Amino acid sequence: MQIDDVDQRIIASLVADARASYSEIGERVSLSAPAVKRRVDRLRAAGVIRGFTAVVDPAAVGWTTEAFVELYCTGRTTPAQLTVATRRHPEVVGAYTVSGEADALVHLRAADIAHLEQALERLRAEPFVTSTRSMIVLSRLVDAPNVVPTPN
Fold first, then answer.
1. Is the pTM of this model over 0.85?
2. Are 52 and 18 in contact (CB under 8 A)?
3. pLDDT means over runs of 10, the chain (152 residues)
4. For the chain, percent helix, then strand, then coil, each to nearest 5?
């Protein structure tokens, strides 16, 4: 699917405020509301836009402790097994297969250190996990979860 400059600007508008009306977005990109809707529908159908969501500040709901955990797994652990297992833990906000020594990298958020320790113990109890290495986040330097790449 070809994404032109107008599509990019529509996507950027939705990333900035997913509740913006088609009319508001149309004003920003010089299109009518129906034209914006057609483009958004096309972007959704193509899978470019996967959905609309609320972005919640974890600190506002009390989850102020976070860590990255390297998982080391038994030899035949598949990405599908990792996906199923990590989705069982509400503290997991991201999980990735990675290159290097570790098999996966898991991003955890918790209310405090005791909660984080409980989450780590549950994660370590997964049958395929042989060991872990944890790094607790001290401060966030860059936090841009919805960055839209701009065309070159």
1. no
2. yes
3. 92 91 96 97 95 85 95 94 96 96 97 97 97 96 69 50
4. 40, 20, 40
